[in-house]
Amino acid sequence: DIQMTQSPSSVSASVGDRVTITCRASQGISNWLAWYQQKPGKAPKLLIYAASTLQSGVPSRFSGSASGTDFTLTISGLQSEDFATYYCQQAHTFPWTFGQGTKVDFK
Amino acid sequence: QITLKESGPTLVKPTQTLTLTCTFSGFSLSTTGVGVGWIRQPPGMALEWLALIYWDDDKRYSPSLKSRLTITEDSSKNQVVLTMTNMDPVDTATYYCASLGFVSGSSSYYYYGMDVWGQGTTVTVSS
To answer: B41: buried, middle or exposed (CB in 10 Å: 19+, 13-18, 0-12)?
Structure first.
């Protein structure tokens, strides 16, 4: 299975901060990487797919990038509604696998 | 508007078989390219992909659970059913179904993940 390793596991930030979350794949996955946001007690929500394509309706402060097997989710100008847990997921090879999650909470 | 909703028992006993139903609207599994997947999340833990089924009845399973999982679809009812045999307390989790996101290529489809999720259903395995 392809292992997806997220870092950090948690980050404390303030409204307005720029937050960067990294996901590393254990082998090449081209750009088949998606990012999800999950709030407590809620289902995940797709934010970005194909590493950098913003899902319809997602604010433009969210962006994604890729470099080899390293992928980055950036939130530029953190808003109060962005405090949540974020997961990456590869869709290149079965079984599809997720990272362990990164929790973004209040500093 | 695409919606999905999971249904099934909230409590099952060890060794029993779990049957979950995903009822969806806003799309048809008879439409070329469409697919539905199942994902679970144990309390306080990360997401785990379980299985998916495509419009053409092709199926994929998590290898670690393949012997215990069966995914089927009933296009006439807009439902996808997941069965998991020999349930154990470690299978306690919230189970989600989701529609597959995809883009069309010149002669194929490229699936990038799950674009619309159900609300999830919590299953506890306990005697």
So the answer is: buried
Residue B23, min C-alpha distance to chain A (Å): 16
Q: Chain A contact for B49, CB < 8 A?
A: yes
Provide CB contacts within 8 A for A13, sequence distance 6+. Answer: A19, A78, A104, A105, A106, A107
Rounded CA gap, A79 and B12, in Å?
40
**Alpha carbon of A21 to those of A6, A53, A56, A71, B41: distances in Å?**
7, 16, 21, 8, 21
The stretch B49-54 carries a mean pLDDT of 98
> Per-residue confidence at B106, pLDDT binned at 50, 70, 90?
confident
DSSP label at A96? P
**Distance (Å, whole) CA A18 – CA B92:** 36
